[in-house]
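ugh finaly. both done.
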Amino acid sequence: MWETVQLTQEQRLIRDEIRDILDDFDREYWRTHDQDNEYPHEFAETLADHGWLGILIPEEYGGAGMGTPEVMVMMEEIASSAGGFGASQAIHGAIYTTTPIVKYATEELKEDLLPKFARGEATLQSMGLTEPNAGSESTNIETMAERDGDEYVINGQKIWTSRVDVSDYLLLIARTTPLSEVEKRTRGISMFLVDLQEAHERGEIEMSSIPKMSMNLSHSFELWFKDLRVPADHLIGEKDRGFYQILDGLNEERLTVSAEAVGIGEAAIKRAVDYANERVVFDRPIGKNQAIQHPLAEAYAHVQAGKHLTYNAASMVDDLSQKEVGIMANTAKFLTSKAAFEAADAAVQTHGGFGAAREYDVERFFRDARMTRIAPISQELALNYIGENALGLPRSY
């Protein structure tokens, strides 16, 4: 399909190299891994071997030292492949969960771990934030970390923590000051880097997989921590300021998720167009019928509109306030998620009964596209942010 966003020469090179890598992973690879609930290890290792998992890690630590627009190009390309949104999300954590280490960890930790993350020798794929009683209301987390000499002792529970099974480390968010003792709800929260192997060996962590309808390439878990001991120097950033440190860079990551939503929308439309041109009913390809053409054309228009807003926002990140970037990021997330789901729905409808068949893949695109409307932020919360910050309406929560 016609490329509607102008890329720099460097971004085109990134796109082309990612395409070359994706050529080695066909539809059957992704379909089988989804059906078997299996993580795409070979794909992740190939990206690591080519240095792409370290795209945001500074060059001084062995990474590529690139920025959000370049990550967006990479992740859109992955999501627009046969792997879809599930493929991009399978390695999303490896790219963005390392960002707090880059920004806030001690120099000793950076020098030790960042080169390993960049080369794929060690992985930080997972962040533990969400809890049963603290979903979107992140400040309501109850997991507690208490100082004990040169260590912190952590007790609590997390849910919907993804990719723990393929990660060597976990970025764990816990309260270091109880909610009842802080002046603002956003204070008293800290970030910790947990060595998962050590935690398992000492019996300080339990985990249970959460069966789910989609995103089967990445597994999600419920976690329990019992007297988990973390070295004090694995406190990432400033004690009690972790919530603000999590928010730093959140808008840029949200733009990348928007680019991934664009990618899955493009993948669904491409598959539907191919089928509409090939499938003959009543002696004519079904793509000749406006009932087929119009939903796909409308989906294309919406996906491309979301893509333009997403890429335009990324180009302005350094020139706008965080509030302004937040408005654009949440708007982009809302529009691209909606467009991706509409595109996947149109693709299923185009295939008719075959839309439900695994071999045509659009049912997988449909399931994964549905998740873009929930994660990493729901459509409703995105609208809340826009209503309050763009329109000046009263805070609704």
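ok and the 2nd:
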Amino acid sequence: MNGGSVKTPGISNERQGQLLRAVFAILLEHPDGLPGREVLRQMQERFPPTEYEAGFHKTNQKDNRGAIATRWWTVDCVKAGWMEKPASGWKITDEGRRAYETYTDPREFAREANRQMYVWRAEQSGDDAEVGSGTAAGDGESAPTEVAVVASAAIETASEDAWSEIQAYLAQMDPYSFQDLVAALLRAMGYHVSWVAPPGPDRGLDILAFTDPLGTSGPRIKVQVKRQQQKVTAEGVRAFLATLGPQDVGLFVCTGGFSSDAEREGRYQESRRVSLVDLEHLVELWVAYIDKVADPSLLPLKPIWFLALPPVQD
């Protein structure tokens, strides 16, 4: 979605700010993120849609006007650095927390997000022109067409729905099949997998791989794979680090992700090298290397084309 000012008949600037701040209030309650569709559902529970907002565009009978408009407006917040919107779930940033506390007036909140978006756009284009006070929806110099807004929302919701299906598919996968999936990905990336743990106690090690066929050069890669919903804690990362020798590189894959403490534990290691791979990163790697995977049916994905209109020109 491209973002920018949107003239939305039936939704005032004040209302835009109220809905955006509701989104932020919900995300503040869920620091680990929440699927976009769920955020919008809760938003409309707190601020029931008006008659106009409850209606539907003729090309989209799935998401009402209020949800579609809010999706578009949140792009300003992304460009402002206030929030992130991966398909796996929307998240508020530290900058977003500060903005929520600073700009308590709904109109001011929306205007500042829009102003920050124009700052971002100017930086991307190399335009040194001074950016003014910004404009909230309804005040813009130019507005995207309804088709552009609805098409952008369709891409975003389709990505979220696809991600939910991928999550569900991997969640029900047998743990050893998931282990095989990780091994297949490593092979596709050019690593030489020498051992995959058979069923039974793994003692913290699931896969061994090397950078050459004989394992005579480069580090030995030790992999631990966990297919679980819970986040790995710092203690879990430290336990894995204890299995690594001086010349080893650790790869910790967990579908549930890692706590912030666990991420810091891995990030600031001085004596051991370790990479933490959550589900989102794993799927990104799978997509990047799927053409080289020997058995892509382990996670069968298929690209689908959507209409993606060019950015709005001011």
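summary for the 2nd one i guess: Residues 2 and 207 are 42 Å apart (CA to CA).
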